Amino acid sequence: MQITGPSIAVQLVTDNLPAWSLTLPSPQTNNSPNTRRFPTVGGRNVLLGVWGLLLMMALASQADALVRFDFEQKYFQHRGRQVWDFSIIRPDSIYHIFYHTINEQTPSATFGDTIWHATSEDLKHWDSPVAVIVVGQGPWDDGAIWAPDVFRDEGNNRWVIAYTGCDANFNQSICLAFSNNLMQWTKSVYNPVAEADTAVYVWDKNGIWSDFRDPYIYRQDNQWHMLVTAEQNLGINTGVLYHGTSDDLLSWTDVGPLFVNDGATPGKVLESPQYKVIGTTHHLLFGEFNTTGTTILSAADPSGWTMANRVLLDYGYAPEVDEFDPGVRIFSRLANYYLPDGVNIGYVVRIDTLLTDPDGSNPSVYKPHPMDDNWVVHSGTSNLANPTFGDNPIWRGEATVGLVGHGYYGSKEYHQGPLSGRGSPGTMLGDAITGTAESYRFPITGDRMTLLVGGGNYPGTCYVALVDDADDSILYSETGGNNATMTPREWDLTPYQGRTCYVAIIDLETGAMGHINVDEIIEIADPTGVQDDAPALRPTRHGAFPNPFNPRTTISFDLAQANQCEVRVHDLRGHLVWRSGAFAGLQGANGVVWDGQDATGSPAAAGTYLYAIEVAGQARASGKIALVK
Fold it and tell me: Which pTM was predicted?
């Protein structure tokens, strides 16, 4: 091994199908859905207007891209800028991230002058960021703006960003901005709404760098509560979490610190705090200033928190825990990595899952192999660190690989991304290693498949192929043609529509250039197919809602004309799990409820499944659904 580089009851549903619920993740179903509350993070209602329009546009694009393997992971990256403190919400089945940034070449994170906004359907693919708030309302935020925390003020029918405003000398206070649509924001005329009491806290408006930052706001007992990173005069300068309460978000009463740093280094301030209650366990998460990693304190009551029982939950900075689907907790934090110059640092947001016991104890971060999502087989050394994060050969001074997004498959590479624990920028395992990968099985419903391929030229031992699942015969295959930079390829699928197939990536070659690079494998349904009846038979829209789900989901689809239909659910290896039985599909909206049981009536295991919609005896559309328990 060579490692080189720098460092069954069937219910038919045809009425009242939600117009935007066909292919997107499910919205929250918690009570009081638009206000952050304990014991868990609340959900958000669906927003109409501009975001409803965006949802419909997203649905229209999904109808064209059927199967897609693009090797993106759950990272948020703003190219050319470091991503710093952030806030993620999901008000309308779309994820929204708000964050402040600095240029990659800026040596200090203090110079954040803009809060940005981007959206995603799956935490992997993000739209282009838009600047929503900039410095300059008054002297309190002329120097910098940091650490947005976004939440819903349901009583006033508005969205709120609480953020840190810094003056020219980086003395910090808490400010607010308001919005009706998450796009246009207006700073409060009452800014700053909270400042440190100089008689209690180490804070001097005429000094340099006074700590009072990183607001976290939640609703409890009919009051607003705010936690802020601060430093208090307690005989010595001690890091504390300021705790304020308010009835209107504008006037805050200091009720005394929620937590005082009682550790061996009490002078360290506690950054980016979050307070979460899971089951019967109260968790406090934060970063200790100038210390790597996320600290978590856990106890049956907040009075039991102590640094003596602190746990390093994971590496990274500015932790955030969100529960958008019942029992599924997203754990996000900042992750850094070296840029190709080996000097400057890039920062992205990495997103994983937080696991606990049922009572909320024993928290841990779950990092599944990112190939698990779409690839039922990924074996051999070449798959240790795939997908590859970023344009990894550039770190070694080589030519660009030509990836799209932030990930691709490179069978000689060894960098899965920040905080993955697999490799580092520029490292590779070399051409001598081998391995194979097979995608989940899917029915061919599109007209063509496009992909990017690069690497060596070994047709028998190093290639990417479309394979017929019935007999493992290769329908199409491509090599890199001895060009490491990927180039576009295209396969005509019309002769194979209705067949169940999979994509295989094979690297059994140990010679020079014995590797394969692959990205953006996309199945496309053209507006007019080769078969005369194909457009009329193919569902014009399809999807599942809710998704993820437990215990049931509605698989919905629209037909241009009435026809005989059946819905089948398979596991990712192609084994039939459940079928609806044949029924008369109606022109327009149709839906079938799967109750999460297999063909024997037993509950299906938690996991990812593939649904296939058959029209006139052939599979015409498919998608993925996730059963969570």
Answer: 0.79
